[in-house]
Amino acid sequence: MKEIYKYLFVFLGCMFIFPLISNAQCSYERQAELSRIAANVQLSYNYELTGETPDFTVNITNIPNDIYVKNITDGNKVNTETVHFAENVAGENIAYGIYSNDANCKDELLLTKYVTLPFYNSFSAIEDCIDYPEFKYCQKWMNTDEITQDHFEQEFDKYTDKIFEENELKQNETNILKEFFDQNKTWVIITISGIVLIILLIFAKRRMEK
Questions:
Q1: Res. 3 pLDDT band, cuts 50 70 90
Q2: Distance CA 95, CA 116 (A)
Q3: Residue 203's pLDDT is what?
Q4: In this structure, what are the phi and psi dihedrals at residue 45, rounded to the nearest 5 degrees?
Q5: Crossing angle, helix 149-183 and helix 185-209, to 10 degrees?
C-alpha cells in the first residue's frame, strides 16, 4: 500500500512539474512574434570624411528589449558602430545577427540582416574632379581599384579635349551668325521689318472683315 502511495505521489508531482517546464519553453507562437520584431530592425549608414578616408557609422534602429543585435564578424553586441574604411570593408556585406533576448528563447538567432558599404573613390577629391564632377571617374562612390593614375589622366584628357572642341564649335557657330548679321545688318532689319509689317496688315484686314 505504501508503494502505491509512493507512486501516486510521484505521479502527481510530475503532473505539476511538467506543465511548468512546458510553459517555460520557447513556444512556436513566441518565436513567430520575435521573428516579426526582428524583421522590423532597420539598418542604415552615414559617413564623415577624415582627410580622404570616410568613416562609416552603421545605424541600427527599432531594437526593443525583446531582442539584441550582434556584428556576426566580431561577435560584439551593437546599437550603432563606426566602421573605418578599408578595402576589405568597402563593397562587402556586413552581417548583423538579430537574437532573442526573451528568457525562454534566450540567444536564439532570429534573423540575419546585411548592410553594404560603398566603395569610396579617392579621385573624386582631386582638383580635376572638383572642376569637372561629371567626368566618368569623378563620382564619389564607385570602385576605382583597377583605375591607375595614368589611365585616369588619359581618359580625363580625352574628356576635356572633347568639351573644348564642342565649346569651340559652338563659339564658331555664334561667331558666324554674328559676322553674318554684321555684314547684312541693313538687309536683316529690312527683312524682319517687312515680315512684321505683313503680319500686322493681315491682322488688321481680318479685323476689318469681321
A1: low
A2: 9
A3: 74
A4: -150, 155
A5: 70
